[in-house]
histidine kinase
Amino acid sequence: MIPVDPSSPAELANYRYLFEGLIEQSVAGIYLLQNDKLIYVNEAFAKMCGTSRDKLAGKSLADVAPRDQRDELLRQYARRLRGESPENTFIVRIKRPNESTMRAIEIHGRLISYRGEPAVIGVGIDATSRLLRHQELEDSKARLSELLTYIQKVRDEERLDISMELHDAVGGMLSALRFDLIRIGKKIGRLTPLQHSHEAKVQLGELEDTAEQAMQLVQDTIKVVRQISEDLHPSALPHLGIAEAIKNDLEKFESRYGIRGDFHHAGARADFPDETVRDLYRIFQEGLNNVAKHARATRVAVSIRQADQWFVLSMEDDGVGMAGHAPQPGKYGLSTMRERVRRYGGTLDIAPGAQGGVRLTVGIPVAGIPVAGSPVAGQR
């Protein structure tokens, strides 16, 4: 508060000059409302509104407010006068003369006492550019969300195609090769070593060993191809359900990486359509993949449960913590996980775990998931 002696004309004059310097030349619009009328507006406020001070001063709030926002502005003003909220922010949209686009004016107001009566003083800030940038950002997020959804769909389709190609084509060729090797082995076995020289006997023995080694290699390759095919698109997932699929994967994970996997199933709903089961499974897969790559953990605990009307999937490891799970440039695992959750109106939370690792919690509202076999299932 600037000290002023009201009995001193000189001090009052100085105060007036100070007022004019600060208020009149301010780039922010300033107004004073009392008895439903604009008692004062500075030049900046009038310019924001696309008019002159003379046309605003003394006008009632109802007269100058945009028609579609008039009732709300009057309610906000009445609330300020009742002291229900000391401060308030409101966006007024105005179309100024000779402009095709609407301007967004951010109005701030505060209750004061002026000449012994309640009044509202505040500032107006042109927020048009800021709100446009915000809208552009939201539009970009929406486009990114659509792109991620499309990428996920293409990726899932490619996984299915590759899985089928590996299983049917490559698997079929390997099986044919296996039977050819079996026939070769049988023919070698029918040859009587006694009819041949010592050198021929040695060569036949080596050939038989080579055939057996080739047979073992083909069998191992068939197993690997089947495993890759299953990892890309688990054929039994729709039949097993999410709980059994998670349990099976944790057993394989423990065998492969030596990281203990614990699973707890607390009676969560299981009648999800195939698409939902696949999304939940992919989220689990990505989380497990992060544990294997980054966590340096010795144990990971996974649970699924139903909390009120939410299906909850949680994963917690005892690894190095959040630093190990930091997003890597060019890696979109977390983004795709969030997008899979978003399409169901769910939530995804990553936080420090109780044992110093990381806890991943996914919640999906059950009401947003159609029952498997219903007419709307698969139409998401």
